[in-house]
Amino acid sequence: MTDATRISLTIPHDLGGLRLDIALQRMLPEHSRSRLQAWIKEGLVMLDAAATTSKTKVWGGEQVVVQVQVKPESYAFTAENIPLDIVYEDEHILVVNKPAGMVVHPAAGNWSGTLLNALLFHAPHLKDVPRAGIVHRLDKDTSGLLVVAKTLAAQTNLVRQLQARTVKREYRAIVWGQIWRNGVIDQPIGRDPRSRTKMAINRSGKPAVTRYEVLERFAVQTYMRCNLETGRTHQIRVHMQHLKAPIVGDPVYGFRGIVPIRAMTQTLRDAVDGFKRQALHAIKLGLLHPETDEFVEWQIELADDMKALLEAMRHEDERPVDEEEFELSFGGLRSEPYLSDEDYEDDDEFDDDEYADDEGELEDDGDLEPDEET
Q1: Is 347 noted as a catalytic residue in this protein?
Q2: Where is mean pLDDT largest: 159-168, 290-299, 363-372?
Q3: Burial letters for 281-316: b for 16+ Cβ neighbours within 10 Å, e otherwise?
Q4: Which of 21, 139, 341, 357 is the catalytic position?
Q5: Tens digit of pLDDT for each residue in 212-221?
Q6: pTM over 0.90
């Protein structure tokens, strides 16, 4: 969206001798100087019908035309005709299958094209429900099921269920390495002290529990079921990294582009290289219906791109007998076997981590349930 308003101005003589950007900021105080400088640089400001620079001195009497750009955040709560894959809907709730690549809630860098924008088009009355009924999120590049409240009463009920940890959430993940047993990861998650845009295992963080089960094991990857007992920002992704089995395709908590090439056939290499997101899918969702108080549950198919990746793994050619066995290496040292955390032994109304932001752009709204995924 690039709506703009054309404003014609005459530089007053009492601003003579100032730089153009400073003069404009005095004349248009509702806009910041940095924003005006950006418009000048983009050619959206003309001085006497010619392109100019911020440093140009004005003396009074010059004619200026400014193409005032609408702030992108103004589109945050605008209805947009974006198709939705609706799994279930009634008067009280809506369950949607979110595709990978869609941001759930508007935030810096993603002010339009979000699930919220689509919901406002599908059900215009959601403009009267906080956050258009959204009570939890998935990361931008995590696909799968989300529940949305259609009334304020339903939203309050769902948030309480999320806080009470009675909502059942099951994910499917494809991770690097061979995991040999099922287990539970009970490790607190908080901000990474070295990078505020990431999360990490943090002893001062909030409790986070993920149960995982091996579904299929391959030469260099494992297909898993993950169930959340809590919903912390990037929970599954951080916990899998802690397990030394990062999710395939994860650009933040993964191998940072380093993969065990020698242990894969060309077919599997191509499939992995073509997989451009974290291999994580919210496949099942269960909760108490806000109106009837009956337990209801939905399950969907695995996302098509993850199906294709699994097929490539299943059809992997047998490796030569003398080929090196695949090992994960961290810091030049061979990793320990993949064990569960048990083997390692070693809110206000809305929880502020209970509404985590989508992938990469973390933003604690302080009032919703994040769900791994968030």
Answers
A1: no
A2: 290-299
A3: bbbbbbbbebeeeeeeeeebebbebbeebbebbeeb
A4: 139
A5: 999 999 988 9
A6: no
